[in-house]
């Protein structure tokens, strides 16, 4: 049982900083003590130095800031190599780039190679947990889980279900999609730190029979995740209205098949109405706000005021390859600007909460990840406020925690991630990766 101690500035959370100003807990000279992959204590160095065991390694990171590992609640690993592909909006982008790229994942070699690169890229950005879309091929999910298990990351992923309105080469059937998903659930859900997400791509690419199969799987496995897209783009919303004329709204299609519940996470949620938002709040269904993607594809602006008024759970996500960065810091940068466009001031402190403890709570994983509390799995990021000459000049003038975090969010990216730890093991070192 070896103990390690990390002495640094610390930021962790006991709740939503928008609800209570004391919810962000900051230690100027703090320490995180880790044993067997879990945090055993965290707090002021002066109070805890006596708890550091004789013989423990003490890492001196006093010029750095430790925060809980970032949680990206919506990302497509097969789209890694097609990030930054231009198209006039979502539907042409899917047809022109996405579907042809995803075809390649029938090949285990392509899937394995991309999954390993993807996981390393997440870690280089300080992301220790993600909700990941694979492709329709079940081997694409095996490849992702294998790569994430090799780093002992807490990862949530699923095989895409898609039985219509996509090329023949990417189609499953209600039965094959059900069987493959059931097999993957039994192989990967709660296998070490891996967890399964049932993944109907979005309502237009699933028949009613496939959505019924999803309903059955969701009922049979109450603790798996569900992920899909909703109300991202106006052309898509119109299309769903034509395909499901009996449903009140796009979100209502998922409701009809029992797919709104705790641990269900929907990407985008731009074109929802108040009744939809209320339904999300009532059912504990989570919105994954993807600002870099929504700006890139011109999908629309997420409404923070309405989301907050409805009390629906909100999280932040990259949505790579629609999203233009793997970095949750860059995602915060764009989230702040999108909120500003709606007249809402989203503080950096709250964005750090949304990307850590807030996401963990929304995903029903608060007892495992998202904070530096004792017993938490030791997933954390060591941020470097002096990562670039500009960051160094700006953070030297920061007069509050909010100003420090704001500079990191607006100016930071993978360069600001000094090290990343998953379950207490160092899984990324910026300076070693550079060599
Ligand atoms: N809607 C359906 N599939 C996708 C996808 O791959 N990316 C995005 N952004 N939206 C989608
Ligand atoms: Zn997406």
TrEMBL record:
> What does it catalyze?
guanine + H2O + H(+) = xanthine + NH4(+)
Cofactors named for this entry: Zn(2+)
- The reply on keyword Metal-binding is yes
Question: What Gene3D superfamilies would the database entry show?
Answer: Metal-dependent hydrolases, Urease, subunit C, domain 1
What is the uppermost EC class here? hydrolase
Its keywords, alphabetically, are: Hydrolase, Metal-binding, Zinc
A molecular function (GO) term? guanine deaminase activity
Pathway stated in the Swiss-Prot or TrEMBL entry: Purine metabolism; guanine degradation; xanthine from guanine: step 1/1
Q: How is the cofactor bound?
A: Binds 1 zinc ion per subunit.
Q: Does the keyword Isomerase apply?
A: no
**InterPro entries membership:** Amidohydro-rel (IPR006680), Guanine_deaminase (IPR014311), Metal-dep_hydrolase_composite (IPR011059), Metal_Hydrolase (IPR032466), Metallo-dep_hydrolases (IPR051607)
Return the GO cellular component terms, semicolon-separated.
cytosol
Which one GO biological process term can you cite for this protein?
guanine catabolic process
- Ranges for domain Amidohydrolase-related come to 66-416
Enzyme Commission number(s): 3.5.4.3
The UniProt family comment states: Belongs to the metallo-dependent hydrolases superfamily. ATZ/TRZ family.
What is the documented function of this protein?
A: Catalyzes the hydrolytic deamination of guanine, producing xanthine and ammonia.
Name of this protein: Guanine deaminase
From which source organism is this entry? Paraburkholderia pallida
Taxonomic lineage is: Bacteria, Pseudomonadati, Pseudomonadota, Betaproteobacteria, Burkholderiales
